[in-house]
Design a protein that fits this description.
Blueprint lengths: L12 H7 L5 H11 L4 H11 L5 H16 L3 H14 L3 H14 L12 H4 L3 H18 L4 H13 L3 H14 L4 H14 L3 H12 L7 H14 L3 H11 L5 H13 L10 H9 L7 H13 L3 H12 L4 H18 L3 H9 L15 H4 L5 H17 L3 H12 L6 H6 L29
Helix pairs in contact: 1-2, 2-3, 3-4, 3-5, 4-5, 5-6, 6-8, 8-9, 9-10, 9-11, 10-11, 11-13, 12-13, 13-14, 13-15, 14-15, 15-17, 15-22, 16-17, 17-19, 18-19, 19-20, 20-22, 22-23
Length: about 450
């Protein structure tokens, strides 16, 4: 079932390129809009692809024109444009609610499926579950011949921890359309859960070589770095971080480096601490909990203990529950680790990682899931607790925490190092960072 929307469907090359997360998507969409300037959905999809680079005025003006043009087409086009308006304004709950209504009227709409990430972006378990159920319904309606819905369901299964199903679905989607970026991403997640190692990095390198401008080029290289780290190829993990991740990729670089440090390895090139402080102090620096968490990891890599304590204090005073009850103790635990107080870190993290309290489908606690991001990204909290437990002399508890991974993945060199009584100390930097000695004036201010 491939529904045409005022002449717009997955059969149109620009839409297909956008769904595939291709590096050619934006140029193709720009050309499409130039050729069909009164096609409202085309203009709206270009806005969806470029929203982060548009000012508020540009966003409003472009979508006003798109909506006017969509009104002269049909109700379905108007609904799509309105969905893009909500999504690009980061009104994710409203976007999700609108999509439920949209799919009830136009089931199987692959173009509307481009906005399904809104359900997870809400940051609420109820919305995530509704979004997952919606993807399953659309896949059932469209059938396995739809590479877009097969790719989407592969992603859903990966996030549900159903790695084998995800891998099969991703393979099917890639067989139908080899350039499906969502399927490639889902496969990377499934293979992380399975421990595919070099086989996964080989697939990712081959897939990316065909489109070096792919939207996910950096992120999939980060996935490859994690596979290399997991199977003990630390040089390759560092190489990918240094060669692919730039100054703007603070979160991915910090996540890779913190894992390297936890395993007792030399990190890749460091982040600029001044830049991290500027990002946190900027308007919107704490607008999203997962973004703030990544910046906290960057501070931890730099052993910026005082900055971490200040950030934890800010999060603890935040009115948003996820900041106050989840982010604050995690950041405080990072501060304790960088200060060498691992027992205090254990106390802070234990209730967030599945050793106590209810757990979700990820194996981590339901509270930890409120940090946002995806399974592999939140896994670093569990890694941190495992290392802290071992350093605090509680090896049995650390082993119990990581047992599900070690018993299910084909390789687990990284987990073995997390459980080592002492991290290797071949080089001065191959240990957990020590407390900083920065002057108080250089520390992130408490507000």
């Amino acid at each position: 079932m491939r529904r045409s929307v005022a002449g717009v469907s997955m059969r149109d090359v620009p839409v297909r390129e956008l769904a595939a997360l291709s590096g050619r998507a934006v140029p193709s969409l720009r050309q499409w809009v130039a050729e069909r300037p009164r096609l409202g959905v085309a203009r709206a999809l270009l806005v969806l692809a470029t929203a982060d680079a548009l000012s508020d005025t540009e966003l409003r003006d472009e979508l006003t024109v798109a909506h006017q043009d969509a009104r002269s087409a049909d109700a379905r086009s108007m609904s799509l444009v309105y969905g893009v308006f909500l999504h690009t304004h980061r009104q994710y709950r409203l976007t999700a609610d609108h999509l439920l209504t949209h799919f009830a009227r136009w089931p199987g709409d692959e173009v509307a499926g481009l906005m399904l990430d809104a359900f997870h972006a809400c940051g609420e378990a109820g919305y995530r579950e509704r979004g997952d159920a919606l993807a399953e319904e659309q896949y059932a309606l469209s059938g396995p011949e739809s590479w877009t819905w097969t790719s989407r369901l592969a992603w859903v299964r990966a996030e549900q921890g159903r790695a084998e199903e995800s891998h099969v679905l991703a393979g099917r989607a890639l067989a139908l359309f080899p350039r499906s970026g969502l399927a490639a991403h889902a496969r990377a997640h499934a293979e992380h859960e399975q421990g595919a190692g070099p086989a996964s990095t080989a697939f990712l390198d081959l897939w990316l070589a065909a489109d070096p401008e792919a939207v996910q080029f950096k992120h999939l290289n980060w996935h490859a770095a994690l596979q290399s780290l997991a199977c003990g190829d630390f040089a390759d993990a560092r190489r990918r971080a240094d060669e692919v991740l730039g100054r703007a990729d603070v979160g991915m670089r910090a996540a890779a480096n913190w894992r390297l440090l936890l395993a007792g390895q030399t990190p890749a090139g460091r982040c600029d601490l001044t830049h991290v402080r500027e990002l946190l102090a900027a308007p919107g620096g704490m607008a999203e909990v997962f973004h703030t968490f990544n910046l906290a990891l960057a501070l931890a890599v730099e052993a910026a203990t005082d900055d971490l304590r200040a950030l934890a204090h800010r999060a603890a005073r935040d009115e948003r529950p996820d900041y106050r009850h989840v982010l604050a103790p995690v950041v405080q635990a990072l501060a304790e680790i960088t200060a060498g107080r691992t027992a205090a870190a254990v106390d802070l993290l234990t209730g967030l990682t599945g050793l106590t309290g209810p757990t979700g489908p990820t194996g981590l606690s339901t509270r930890t899931e409120r940090l946002g991001g995806v399974r592999v990204e939140r896994e670093i909290v569990q890694d941190t607790l495992a290392r802290a437990l071992v350093d605090a002399g509680e090896h049995a508890r650390a082993a119990a925490l990581l047992h599900p991974r070690i018993s299910s993945r084909a390789h687990h060199t990284y987990e073995d190092l997390l459980l080592a009584p002492k991290a290797p100390t071949a080089t001065p930097t191959a240990v957990l960072p020590a407390a900083p000695t920065a002057a108080p004036a250089a520390v992130l201010p408490v507000v």
